[in-house]
Amino acid sequence: MIEKLRGLGAWGLQALLRLGRAHVLLLAMLRGFVDILRRPRLLVEQLFSVGVLTILIISVAGLFVGMVLGLQGYYILSRFGGETALGLMVAASLVRELGPVLTALLFAGRAGSALTAEIGLMKATEQLSGLEMMAVNPQYRVLAPRFLAGLISVPLLAAMFSVLGVAGGWMVGGGMLGVDQAAFWNGMQEGIDFEDDVINGVIKSLVFGLVCTWIAIFQGYDCVPTSEGVSRATTRTVVHSSLAVLGLDFVLTALMFGE
Amino acid sequence: MTENPKNAADDILVRIRGLRFLRGERAIFDGLDIDIPRGKVTAIMGPSGTGKTTLLKLIGGQLRPHAGSIEFDGQNVHALSTAELYELRMRMGMLFQSGALLTDMSVFDNVAFPLREHTRLSESMIRKLVLLKLEAVGLRGARDLMPAELSGGMARRVALARAIALDPMMIMYDEPFTGQDPISMGVLVQLIRRLNDAARISSVVVSHDVAETLRIADLVYVISDGKVVESGTPQQLAESGGEWTRQFIQGLPDGPVPFHYAAAALSDDLLGGAA
Amino acid sequence: MNKSRQIELWVGIFMAAGFVALFFLAMQVSNLGNAYSGDTFRVMARFDNVGGLKVKAPVTIAGVEVGRVQEIRYDADDFRAVVVLGIQDGYKDRIPEDTFAKILTAGLLGEQYIGLDPGGSLDYLGEGSEIGITQSALVLEEVIGQFIFGKGQEGAE
Fold first, then answer.
1. What's the confidence (pLDDT) of residue A28?
2. The predicted structure's pLDDT at residue A232
């Protein structure tokens, strides 16, 4: 019994230490933004590997989610004769919630795990150590550009997700199910408020992007430098990111959309 | 900056005094004293697990000692600010066991990396320097290959070219001979000696490969249990040598470093276990 | 260096696509495209019951949106709700003072909004004016109550 308590205490202490290290890393990366100004190439390369390569999965997912929303929404709304609200329903679901959240989850799975594996491997093959011995700070040169790239990419990807989702809903609603085009778009435009919905959605995706990229980079940087360690770190990235996104979504939604 | 004029003109490049370093509860180093002279090849030897790589990291300032001091070229390594430490590291080169090349760049870009980071030389100037460094290690023709396409030995040579890119005062070699075939080993041995003499770079070789190391070392330190057990030229070591040194150098399976890991008597284990 | 050129191109496309998506969301999906950027003048109206009226609900004349509800508050001295309407400046001094303000519902399940019926006065609404004649929102329970009461009255006779 005492052993269990001691174990718990030790675990708690380790968790606090990790939290501390994670924040120290965050500050170092923020400081590293200054260096990126002098070497924009680094950022461009990371935007490619983190952002551009995630476009495919985001686009396909967005389209399909929008289409499903169109279908399901139609079936439910038509019971009350409210088909004309389909546009608003699809757009509101996407812009406020599904766009930011699903994009972040997909990002964590695709780009986050890749980041963790890459950085973990650099640690295991002593590349990070090598950089330090060559008088180059790896946190500024390797980690900061990846962090900034994630921060920029996620909101843009979320916007793409939402747009494609609306398109998907429109295709299904207008094309397949015969919902009136004008009603679809007008209902949407009347109901979706730029400040309340679009801006809040962007803020959400910014927060999610920050958290997911931070977790991914930290797990890679802090992992045990063996193949098993890297693999466990990658798993942790996806799990922690997902939970964090869902938890933060609740908090942000309550703050933003509550009255 | 602790600039002691007497030390600057000194023969001793690195001065380690009373070094103590712990990992968890275990003392990796417990009162270590080492002098690394300029312009010579100094070997630090001992069995695996004695923390030889740790020592190099301590000299380079990547780790902090729990007690004791390390001076490089008259400056206390751990008393420096981050900026000064980075300045210092530009005068040291380090060759990691695996080479530690940046995998997303070609051989040429890897060697050019320190030049592009720390100097403002023009690209054409950098190109000439890189080609010269690669020529020194015999890999000028491999300049467009990617690290994944190199053999282990070639990767280390490229890493060596990179380590000398900024013409450092000292190069630290972390287990350079481990896992090499005889030819690559021969090549490396020759390179280390040549660089040391021709370019007057001081070399610190950390290894447990006795034969090769003794071939090129001018001065040898043997470490065990966190302290220096023996030191001297290879000649002196071969002739004198305590029991421990002899076991190490001759590769005897049993002696001061025991063959059997601590355990109960065999009869007890066999008879007691079955029940 | 062909490869780095390609990368730069793709990143450029990515950033552009992202911003286009954001722009699309702003203009086509949200109400930003419809929203006027002009200035408005404030007009007050008092109601016995505002029902489900919300801030930013539209204010219409003859079905055309001419402004939005800016503020809804309760006047403890008057025991009535005070609604502040923000009407586009283009209509300043164009709406008669004796205009009638009603709270209407858009469709069966729709949101509530304010409809203005212009009167015939030669004085017009300006900044800070108050609409005197108002009709409160229809509250379902009261209607049912009236119906039942009315039926009860009939029955008693």
1. 92
2. 95
The string of DSSP codes covering C108-125 is TT--EEEEEE----SSB-
Touching A (3+ Cβ pairs <8 A), the chains are B, C
Separation CA B188–CA A23 (nearest Å): 43
Quote ipTM for the complex: 0.77
Q: State residue B225's pLDDT score.
A: 76
Structure tokens at B211: 């034969």
Whole-number Å distance between alpha carbons of A147 and A31? 12
Q: pLDDT under 50 in chain B at which residues?
A: 1-9, 275
How is chain A split among helix, strand and coil, in percent rounded to 5? 90, 0, 10
Burial, B147: exposed, middle or buried (Cβ in 10 Å; 0-12, 13-18, 19+)?
A: buried
Burial profile C70-107: b = 16 or more Cβ within 10 angstroms, e = fewer: beeeeeeeeebbbbebbbbeebbeebbbbbbbbbeeee
3-state class of B48 per DSSP?
Answer: coil
Q: Nearest by CB to B96, from A130, A136, A137: name it.
A: A130
Retrieve residue A108's tokens: 């964590």
Chain A positions touching B62 (Cβ under 8 A) are 129, 132-133
Write the pLDDT tens digit of every residue in C52-96.
Answer: 787 778 888 888 888 888 888 888 888 888 888 888 888 877 888
Q: Which two tokens stand for residue A5?
A: 């308590």
Give Cα A212 to chain centroid, integer Å.
6
Domain extents in chain C: 1-30, 40-145
pLDDT at B8: 45
Contact A51/C8, CB-based, under 8 Å?
no
Dihedral sign for Cα B55, B61, B67, B70, please: positive
- Asked whether the beta carbons of residue A127 and residue B103 sit closer than 8 angstroms, the reply is yes
Q: Where are the alpha helices (DSSP H) in chain B?
A: 5-8, 52-59, 82-89, 107-118, 123-136, 152-163, 182-198, 210-216, 234-239, 243-250, 266-273
Mutation site for C-interface testing, chosen from A39, A42, A45, A47 by largest number of C Cβ within 10 Å = A47
**Which of the other chains make 3 or more beta carbon contacts under 8 angstroms with chain C?**
A
What DSSP string describes B143-208? TT--GGGS-HHHHHHHHHHHHTTT--SEEEEESTTTT--HHHHHHHHHHHHHHHHHS--EEEEEES
Directed axis angle between helix A99-107 and helix A55-77, to 10°?
A: 140
Amino acid at position C26, single letter:
A
Strand, helix or coil for residue B65? coil
Q: How far is A216 from chain C (nearest CA, A)?
A: 21
Nearest to C18 among A82, A156, A192 (CB): A156
Can you give the pTM of this predicted structure? 0.78
